[in-house]
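Dear colleague,

Thank you for sharing your sequence with our group. We've completed the structure prediction you requested, and as agreed, I am returning the results in plain text so they can be pasted directly into your records. Please verify that the sequence below matches your submission; if there's any discrepancy, let me know and we will rerun it promptly.
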Amino acid sequence: VQLQASGGGLVQAGGSLRLSCAGSGRTFGPVYMGWFRQAPGKEREFVAAIGWSSGSTYYSGSVKGRFTISRDNAKNTAYLQMNSLKPEDTAVYYCAAQNSGRYYSGDEYQYWGQGTLVTVSS
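Please find the predicted structure tokens below.
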């Protein structure tokens, strides 16, 4: 399984970005796909996750109501729509996929994309 993240960039506070994460591999079909982020000098944190089959969504408190995770099973792609961006959302965003485990635990994700930088200016 390989994951390719894209869509990062520079945006002003209050703006929007949409990240994409395309999965490939003969047996692609995770239990969860998630987004995590890591800001400079900080630990990686959970942002959002989606049940690949169920479509159930989960968010961290800091992004709930502003970010929306979705997926297109036919395209093996997950999306993270980020609205009302704040400077504190600035980070490298990583997508990840797991076959079993807790959706919020990065250590339990087996596959990771390369990361895409999101910079929010004030």
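Summary note from our side: The mean pLDDT is 96.

Kind regards,
the structure core
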